[in-house]
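Ticket #4471: structure output looks truncated?

Reporter: J.K.
Steps to reproduce: submitted the chain below (171 residues) through the standard prediction queue, then opened the result file.
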Amino acid sequence: SSVTVLLGDDIQKAIDRMNAEGGGVVQLVEGTYKPSTDINLKSDVSLVGIGQDITIIDFQNTAFQVRAVGTLASIMDNFSIKNLTIKDSDATKQVLYIQFADLWSVEDVTIKDGGTTGMIVGDARKFTISRCTLSSNGGSGLFISATNSRSIQHFQIISCFSSSNGINGFR
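Returned output as attached by the reporter:
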């Protein structure tokens, strides 16, 4: 099942609806979305745009981000983010934050202009990040880490590009 979110509509409400229906695709249209809260992904829900720099989620230098965060006791799984640009979280947040999540992908996504690291992946397994651009973030473009709670295992990074980040491209 799927739901289309028009410009000005609530992305989180659509994600919550797909989650309540057991999963599906939240389809974003061409244009710029300007959310005023975090966007919290859910298991079995995909967030899909029309294309990089065509569908844009712009946090307008606020303390919000796209999040896909489970817990050690409740791992998030089976989600994807595709075909869009996510940008402009302020100096206190990453643009995209994924933790305690398995069996997911980020494909054809641009992550830019974050105040700190563009994308952080922690304590995750069995994931793919492909054809992504990470640029002009205050910290690293992509930072992958594990805690003492859970190791990072079985992942692929394919054809990704990083430039003009404040610390490292990939860490």
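Triage note (M.O.): checked the attachment and the full token line is present. The longest helix spans residues 11-20.
Status: closed, working as intended.
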